[in-house]
Amino acid sequence: MQAMHLGAKLRDMEFVQWHPTRLDEPVPMFLTNGLLADGAIFRDASGRPFMADYDKRADLAPRDILAKAIYTEARAGRGLGTAVYLDCSPIPEGRIALRHGHLAGTLRKHGVDFPRQWLVVSPATHFLMGGIAIDTNARSSIHGLYAVGESAGGLHGANRLGGNAFSEGLVFGTIAGQHAARALSLDGHTKLASAVADTVRAEIDPTADDPKAALSTMWHTLREEMWQDASVVRDAAALARAAQLIGELTEEGTRLRGRSPREVARILDFRAGLQCAAVIVASATYREESRGAHWRSDFPETSEAWFGSVWVTWPSCQQHPTLQFKHLTSRPPSL
Ligand SMILES: Cc1cc2nc3c(=O)[nH]c(=O)nc-3n(C[C@H](O)[C@H](O)[C@H](O)COP(=O)(O)OP(=O)(O)OC[C@H]3O[C@@H](n4cnc5c(N)ncnc54)[C@H](O)[C@@H]3O)c2cc1C
Would you state the CATH architecture of domain 17-126? Predict the structure, then answer.
C-alpha cells in the first residue's frame, strides 16, 4: 500500500486464492492437499459427501473448486458454520505413516484420533495473485522500486499453480537483485520520497486513548465483512455492502490516534489493511465475469471481453482508486 500511495501501479487485485483445508482446532494450520490425493473426503454437517455434486473429479478437483464448493455448502446451511468435515479415515495407515506422520503426531498429541476422527476445515486466503505491477526486470512503475514475491502482481494470471510462489521468488528475486545492483552502479542511489517519520509524528497524541481495543474490534469487523461479502463467491450487491462498510471503517480509522510510534504503527497497519480491502473490492466489482480465483455469481461465465488485467492507481492525493482495464492481445502458447 505504501508503494501504491507513492504512485506505483497495481494489477490483478481481484484475484485472491483460497485454500480449501484450513484447520482451526485444535491446532491452527493449513492441511496439505496430499490428504485428498491419498483418499480423504469432504462431508457436510450430516456426514454426506458432497464434492461429486460440484465436479466430476469430486474431492480431487482443483483447490479453487473445492473452496467454492465448501463455501457454497456452508452458505446453504449444510456446513458447520463456515466449515465442513474432512474425513481422513479412508487413507490407509501405511500411507499415513509414509506421508502424513508429522500431521498425525501433532493431531494425536492434541487428543485427535487421527485419521478416524473427522476434522473440521474451512477455506482461508492463501495467496494474492495481484500486487505491484512489474516489468520483466521486476521494476515497478516507480523509478528505483522493485517488487518480487507476493507484493508483485501479474505473474500468476488469474490463479496460481501450487508451488509456483517458490520458483517465482527464486527467479524474480535473482533478477531484481541483479538489475538493482546494475542500476545502482550506473545511476547511483535513487531516493524515494518517504514521509513515514512525518506521518507517524502527525498521528501522535499523548492524550489519546489506547487504540488497541478499537483496532481489535475494527479488524474483526473488516475480516468478517470481507468473508461475508467479498470472499470466495462475490456479487455486485455483496461487494457494494463491503465497499460501504470499508468506507465507514475508514472514517473511524481516520479519527484514531496513538500515544507512541508503536501505537501509530498499529493504526497505520490497519489503515493499510482497509486500503488493500478497498482495492480488492473495487477490482472485484469492476470485473464483471468469473475467471480463475474470481467468482461472480451474477456473472458466472468467463468472458473474452475481460481477457486482460484491471490496473489500479491510488496516489495519496486521491480520495478513491482509479481503475483501468488493459486487454491482453497475445496468449501464452498452450501446454
Ligand atoms: C500455508 C501456506 C503454504 C504455502 N505453501 C507453498 C508451497 O508449498 N510452495 C509455494 O511455492 N508457495 C507456497 N505458499 C505461498 C508462499 O509461501 C508465499 O507466496 C511466499 O512465501 C511469499 O513470499 P514473499 O517473500 O513475497 O513474502 P513473505 O514470505 O510473507 O515474506 C515477507 C517478509 O517481510 C517481512 N515484513 C513484513 N512487513 C515488514 C516490514 N514493514 N518491515 C520489514 N519486514 C517486513 C515479514 O516478516 C516476512 O518475513 C504457501 C503459503 C501459505 C500461506
Answer: Alpha-Beta Complex (3.90)
